[in-house]
Structure formats: C-alpha cells, structure tokens
Task: inverse folding
C-alpha cells in the first residue's frame, strides 16, 4: 500500500521565499503547496488535508493572526508555524494563543525552519499515538543531521546535550549564518521544557529605548 505523503502549505506573498522553501522541503515523503493570499491558502486547507502550514503574518488580504483559527477549524491537527519580518513578543504570544505551533522571525536560517517542521511532525505523531514514552524517546534521539557528521560538529552536539541538562543561561556566539538559532532551538528541544514557547528576538532590530521593555516588560 502506498504511503500517504505529508503536506506542507506555505502562505506567503513573497514568491522568492515560497519557491526557496518549496525546493528545500519537497521530497519523496513530502508535498509542498503554495498560496500568496489568505483566501487561496484557506481554500487549499478546505480542499485537502494539510499537516503543516508556514503562515506569514502580513498577507495582502488578511493577517496570519486572523487566518490561524480558520485554518484550525478545517483541521485541528494542523500545525501552524508563524513567520514574520516584524517580530515582537506580543505578536508571538498572540500567535500561540490563537493556536500557532511555533513562531519564527525573518530572516531565519533554513536549517532552523527544517528543525521546526520536524518537531511539528513529531508532535503530530505523538498526539496520534498518545504515547508519552515516545515523547521522551524522541527528545533523547533528536536528529542532529543538520550539523552532524564532521569532527568539530560532533563536539558541538555534545555541548548541546550538556547545556540542555542545566538551568543556566547559555551564551552562543558566532558570525551570521553559522547556525546559532539552530543550536539554541536544539538546546531548548533537548531540555526539560521542550513543550514551552521558544522565542527569538533580534535585539539589533529594536531601538535602544525599547529593547528593555520588549525583553523585561
């Protein structure tokens, strides 16, 4: 019997972004659909079963916050990943409140998106089986193939495991594009709080007089 493919839907009015994500995620196990408006995206959700939606907050005809409940009304098992070029903690919290599975700030590394989608698929599988032990096993075997396979990266993986076992703050440094967000997300996923909200903030994007309020209220 032929195995049913997983379906990912990208709802974003940026054609270049859509094509890049489409090419990255399409494989023999996954179909990737695209829509440039909320109306077209919701239509696809009503016509076919969608497993994961990558949803932009700013769309030509609506906002992601508004569209999210309508998508979940079609299939409450769908995992929605919000993406936005205008991040704020308030928006992130609001997205989670209306049912989003995760929240990513543009620009992000494609490896971070891949890891986020894998976590969404794992969550779906565990919800279907309702096996709590499987969740623990998933955390213990989290896939690091995005960065593993070379000697120095194996050392990074060991450091990730050590950091995830503590409650101490972790400082990750490196140049742009070296995978800091991927490592941070991996530490979060391996920690004792993997089901809690994971938020990123680009401090350089906030005016100096607002960053304190954004981070500390």
Result:
């Amino acid at each position: 019997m032929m195995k049913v493919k997983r379906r990912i839907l990208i709802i974003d009015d940026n054609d270049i972004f859509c094509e890049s994500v489409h090419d990255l995620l399409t494989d023999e196990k996954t179909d990737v659909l695209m829509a440039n408006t909320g109306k077209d995206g919701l239509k696809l959700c009503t016509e076919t079963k969608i497993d994961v939606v990558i949803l932009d907050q700013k769309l030509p005809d609506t906002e992601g916050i508004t569209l999210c409940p309508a998508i979940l009304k079609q299939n409450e098992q769908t995992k929605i990943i919000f993406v936005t070029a205008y991040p704020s903690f308030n928006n992130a919290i609001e997205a989670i409140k209306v049912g989003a599975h995760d929240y990513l700030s543009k620009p992000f590394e494609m490896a971070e998106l891949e890891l986020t989608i894998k976590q969404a698929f794992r969550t779906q599988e565990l919800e279907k089986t309702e096996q709590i032990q499987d969740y623990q096993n998933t955390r213990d075997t989290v896939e690091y193939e995005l960065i593993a396979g070379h000697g120095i990266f194996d050392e990074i993986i060991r450091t990730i495991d050590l950091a995830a076992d503590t409650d101490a703050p972790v400082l990750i440094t490196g140049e742009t594009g070296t995978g800091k967000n991927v490592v941070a997300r991996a530490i979060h996923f391996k920690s004792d709080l993997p089901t809690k909200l994971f938020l990123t903030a680009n401090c350089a994007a906030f005016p100096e007089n607002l960053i304190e309020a954004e981070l500390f209220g």
About this structure: The beta strands are 6-11, 30-35, 52-56, 79-84, 102-105. Residues 6-130+195-216 form a domain with the Rossmann fold fold (CATH 3.40.50.2300). The longest helix spans residues 110-129.
